[in-house]
Amino acid sequence: MPPYIIVLYTLFVAAVCINILINTETPSKALGYLLLVISFPVVGIIVYLSVGLNYRKKELYRKKLEFDEQEYPMLEKQAAELSRQTLLRNKDKIGNFYQMAAFSKTKNFTSSNNKASILVNGEKKFPDLLESLRGAKHHIHIEYYIYENDTIGNQLANILIEKAKEGVEVRFIYDDFGSSGIRKNIARQLRAEGVEAYPFYKINLILFANRMNYRNHRKIIVIDGTVGYIGGVNVSDNYINNDDKTKLYWRDTHLKIVGTSVSNLQTTFLTDWNFCANQKIPYSTDYFPIVNEEKKFGDHLVQIVTSGPDSKYPKIKFTLIQAILNAKHEICITSPYFIPDKSFIDAIKMAALSGIEVKMLLPTKSDSFIVNTTTQSYFQELMSAGVKIYTYNKGFVHAKTMVCDEKIAIIGTANLDNRSFDLNFEVNAIIYDEDIAKELKEIYDKDLIMSTQIVPDEWEQRPWYMKLLERLLHLFSSLM
Questions:
Q1: Which of 12, 146, 179, 346 could covalently link to 234 via disulfide, CB atoms 3.0 to 4.6 Å apart?
Q2: Of 107, 398, 407, 441, which one is the catalytic site residue?
Q3: Which runs of E-coded beta strand occur in 260-366?
Q4: 217 given a catalytic annotation
Q5: Which contacts (CB < 8 Å, 24+ apart) does range 3-6 have?
Q6: Is the full-model pTM beyond 0.70?
Q7: Which residue in 68, 175, 224, 272 is the catalytic one?
């Protein structure tokens, strides 16, 4: 190879390394990319240029952030004041989680006058959802990461078309990567039948690698501004467990909200919509109905928390850590993917070392060997601090939930990994209510019956090569 090629190549690698140091926010992630680029120069550079660049600083998301901040300013003032009054009235009820509920500087507002209902698996979610959709009068707003061209996908699409023909406004956002299978069929059919449908961050072939990151992982439905759905269940037959014994059992959790907090889901949807569709839907009481105080939906306090590449802070991670640190007795966590950063690990360890019972429910096997093995690389460290780890045997656990002290319940779309905390657009709901928290805890206890607790002494006896592989993958955990 000619010397000048070697010099140019060396200079290029050095330039990439400098770019990593300047533009990567966390030291662990920077070290991971540096290790990858230096150890595997060609592959490492391709990976970094494809998925490692910080798009929070890029024009696309800067534009979205600025646009979001300009929309609905009066609504934001009203929500902030409503949240302030709600917190003052319910300070005793919220108790030691008050500071988390008052996370108002990040625009995560808490509201009362809600009825929240937990929906376990697709068998509970979809019948309830379809009934609500059929009752829509003014609008249906739907936003999903995975929407598949299968039985439930077509059933839902048919209702959307039917409602559009009745004059109901129907708007549909689908992630262009997660829902790639509907581009040429359901999405086209919906548009042809009067439904407005747009992909989130459309994938172009040339920019394919870049755009695989920073996906819209949210699952939101808003009906007439007062009925909302949020959680882990995508639109897919996989989430409906039937009598087919050969089919993998999917365990997931969704939440239905009726009441004032739906306006926060509505704001999230419309800012995403205005970005995708390049529209500016103005504030209207049709989308944000003024709820009469005499009309009582329920007594549940609900806080909607969003985060993504357009957020100034990783708000979902902050609220989860705050919940862990505010707990006094027990923390029950469920997640299909667990590859968080050191701050999250330290929070869990601090809680366990303080005498709080910390339980984690994870899949026995995830849908990725690399992800599963990387997750296992945290087990020894956590168990040494007293964390109890269980793995779900009945099927694949896809729920993203947390219960603290049987006082608050968290249900949403965010996994406990860097991708959900920093790269994807996510949304969680926090319910400050003992009845809902106890119900979710009962569901959690039933899941534990179908699970196996990892015994520290037995875990230590696993083969040496698995320990080595775990440690190797752990080096790149900040990149996953």
A1: 146
A2: 398
A3: 300-307, 330-334, 338-339, 357-363
A4: yes
A5: none
A6: yes
A7: 224
